[in-house]
Give the backbone structure.
Amino acid sequence: MIKQKLVIGNWKNYLDADQTIELATKISNQQIPDNIRLMISPCNLYLSEVNKALNESSVEVISQNITSYESSSDTGGVTATDLKNIGISRTIVGHSEVRKRNKDFKSEDLLKQIIPAKFNFILCFESIDQIPFNILNNDFEITLAYEPVWAIGTGETASIEHINEIHSLVKSTLSEFNLDIPLLYGGSVNPNNSKEILSQKLVDGVLVGGASTKHEDLFKIINSIR
Ligand code: PGA
């Protein structure tokens, strides 16, 4: 079987409703190469509609965040249970923009709720101590994404040496815990650097913000390792 690299488009809150649906519809009409698995994370308000637009395609629609697993008294929160009800089965967790808003954020608190329920997630981290290796497992789809905060939205991508150094450290710790978990890089990935980043053996994919909101750039990234 062909080894796929994961490309996740994190649209954050960059696009309005019309732009979101227009881009999702364009993506739904386009061929995704066999060596790429594409996930799109639109603003939570448009998850349902984007999911419908991409229903017939191989593209998975995922949430940008959750605040708890079960529905609860949590004004403004998004629960995994809510997401499952609209056909979404994966979320990003612990993005640095979420950590910045919520200074008390500890991934363990949230992961202790979603791991027993086997709700797929991508845990973002800036430093290795933000990964609770001891509570992770191989029972469902957990993904990690190394996102140095200084590289997010700045146009300043980490060097290949830096990415490989961190990825090698995280991967060796994963193997000490017998964990088989893919590791992505995120931070100013664009069509000019995606080929080199995606070609690295230690990089299982990329988490792309700004560039993923532009149709042409997104497909240049997707097609960069054809
Ligand atoms: P960026 O964002 O590609 O715009 O740097 C990455 C991210 O926040 O996941």
The mean pLDDT is 95.
